[in-house]
Every structure is written in C-alpha cells, then in structure tokens.
TrEMBL record:
The keyword Heme does not apply. Residues 32-46 have a biased composition (Acidic residues). The chain crosses the membrane at residues 105-125, 185-215, 236-257, 272-290, 297-317, 323-344. Residues 1-65 are annotated as: Disordered. This is Uncharacterized protein.
C-alpha cells in the first residue's frame, strides 16, 4: 500500500475522501439546477399546469366585421345618449314647463306645426303641398284636442292653466281619445321635418316641432308595460339593425334620385311621389324595432305589407344614374333580411329532433 509523502496517510483513504467531495458537489449542483428549472416553470406557467405549446402559439382570432360594427354602434349610442340626456334635462325642467300651456310640449309642437304650414303659404317659402297641409292640420287639431283634455283633467307638469274644452269638442267619440293619435301625429311631423331638411329657415321650424312632439309622445310610446315582454316573444338584438337600415334609407332620400347634369345633381328623393308615406313607414319600423317587444309588437301582416311597399316604391322610383337609389337599396335590403328572419320561425334543435323522429316513424 502506498502512503502519502506529505501527510503519511494511505492513498486509498485520500481517494475516498475526494470521491465523497465530488459526489457532494454534484448533488449540490443538481439541486440548484432543479430549483432553477422549477422557478422558470412557475414563471412561465403560474397555474402549475403543463403548458400546451399549440394553444400558446395559436394567435387570437380577429374580430369579425359584425363585432366591429357593434362596437361602433355602441360608441355612437353612448354619444347620442349623452346629447339626449342634456336635451331631456332642458325639456323636463319645471321652470321651463311652467311657461307652457298646461306644461305640455305637445301643444307647443302643434302650434309650431301650424306656424310652419302658414309660413309655407308665402310663394318664396317652400311647403309640403296643399293636400299634405290639409292632412297635417286636421290630424294636428285632433291631437291638440286630446292633449288639451288630458292636461286639463290630469296635468303631468305644472304650467299655465288651460280652460275646459267647449261642449262640442268635449263630447267627441271615445275612439278619438286613443293615445295612438298623438303618437302617429308626432311621427308624421318628424317625417316632414326630415324631408324638409335643407329648405332654409322653414326647416328649422319643422325640426323644432318634430323634436318637441317626438320627445313628448315618444316618452309615452316607449314606456315598457309593467308585466314586461312575454317569455315566448323575447327581444332580439337583430331587430336593432332595422334602425341602421332606416338611417340609410332616410339619408338616401336627401340625395339625388333623378338624372341631372352631374352624378350629384337631380331631384332629391324626398320630392318624389309618395316619399312622405315611405319615410313615415321607415320611422314606424324604427320605432317598433327599438320598443320593448321589438318587431314582435307589430302584426305580421302589417309588417309584411310595409316591407313590400318599401321594395315596390324603390323599384318604381329607382334610377341607376343617381346615388340615392343605391344607398336606399342597401338600407332596404337590411330591413328585408331582418324582417324575414323575424317572420320565418327558427327551428330549435329539440324541434328538429322531434321532427326527424316523426319522419322515422312514418
């Protein structure tokens, strides 16, 4: 056996100690490497689950055009809501209502409508026509009588006191007291207000009358019932696309529809025959779509006739050389698709399964 020349110990014992020191160093380094690996794993995967390489490397799906349009519509709705809140605060101010007859905005709106019709008699000022003026005046008189009776019996706001109606007007049939008379009259004034855009100062009179009537009567029209919508007729978000179609069609009526010297010259769509009836139906569809029951609150036959009229009026008045009909076509197709989806019942998976079982049974 060989001995160490310095310490005198056998060389076999020295080798064993070196081996032990080597094993301890290797164990310590292995423990440090394992701790480092665990730390890296926890940083990369905090949940402690094994990461899936395919799922982590898969890119997030891009937003569809429908999502982008919904986001844009949401932002627009927020902006409109803020402006509408300011407008509502002004009109509902008790100090403002105290100066109105009976505190009624409807009576003021009827008076502005009459002012617009009277001013249109002058040759330089454009109007809505003799026949349309007669319809508006008669309808407005009936709406004013109903509002006068209401603010005299049960005023909603404190305003200037109004005397009772004469016996000849107070004893009208009860059918003339239906709230739909005032609501459809407000819709009619809003129709002519849109068609009168761009006709100078007279258009501001119509816009003011339409704004007052639309707010006052619309507040009563859109109030939800106490029992809520029926469970078998839920509101559909698809119905709100009718409003987008109505906006496109209404804007197209302000554009040229007849052939002129240039592509942007010609007769506007609002001056075409029966344009007022078309605009009235568009606004009625929009109001019905955003109500608590959506399009389900309108009779299917009436809804079908309105859609057919819009398509028929387009084909009778279209002109491929003007921009108005093309924009109207885009809007009316949107309305037709939504109405068709509403009228055609969607078969649920349970209904499809039951139908297939019935077919198998013969």
């Amino acid at each position: 056996m060989d001995y160490c020349a310095e310490c005198g110990e056998p060389l076999s014992i020295q080798a064993d100690e070196d081996d032990e020191r080597t094993e301890v160093s290797q164990s310590r380094y292995a423990a440090e490497d394992e701790a480092t690996a665990v730390t890296d794993t926890e940083d990369d995967n905090p949940d402690g689950s094994a990461p899936d390489y395919e799922e982590r490397s898969r890119p997030a799906p891009a937003d569809s055009w429908g999502d982008r349009l919904s986001q844009a519509a949401g932002a627009l709705f927020v902006a409109v809501t803020q402006v509408g809140g300011t407008f509502q605060g002004l009109l509902d101010d008790p100090r403002f209502r105290a100066h109105l007859p009976g505190g009624s905005l409807t009576l003021v709106g009827v008076g502005l409508m009459g002012l617009g019709v009277v001013l249109s008699v002058a040759p330089p000022i454009p109007g809505i026509g003799l026949m349309d003026s007669g319809v508006v005046l008669l309808w407005g008189a009936l709406a004013a009588v109903n509002e006068w009776r209401q603010v005299h019996e049960a005023p909603e706001y404190q305003g200037r006191p109004v005397p009772p109606l004469p016996p000849a007007l107070a004893n009208l049939p009860r059918e003339t007291e239906h709230p739909a008379i005032g609501q459809t009259f407000a819709l009619l004034i809003c129709t002519y207000a849109l068609l009168m855009l761009g006709y100078g100062p007279i258009s501001w009179v119509w816009m003011l009358a339409g704004g007052l009537l639309g707010y006052d009567q619309g507040r009563r029209y859109f109030v939800p019932p106490e029992e809520g919508p029926p469970e078998d007729e839920p509101r559909s978000a698809l119905h709100q696309w009718v409003v987008a179609g109505v906006v496109l069609c209404s804007f197209s009526l302000l554009l040229p529809w007849t052939r002129g010297d240039t592509w942007l010259s010609g007769l506007p769509g609002g001056e075409l025959p029966l344009a007022a009836l078309t605009q009235f139906m568009l606004l009625l569809l929009a109001c019905s779509a955003v109500k608590h029951r959506g399009l389900g609150g309108m009779h299917p036959l009436f809804l079908t006739l309105m859609t057919v009229w819009l398509m028929l009026w387009f084909f009778l008045m279209k002109n491929s050389h003007s921009p108005g009909p093309w924009l109207f076509l885009l809007g009316v197709l949107t309305i037709v698709i939504v109405v068709a989806r509403h009228l055609v019942p969607q078969r649920t998976p349970e209904a499809k399964e039951s139908a297939s079982d019935f077919d198998l049974q013969g």
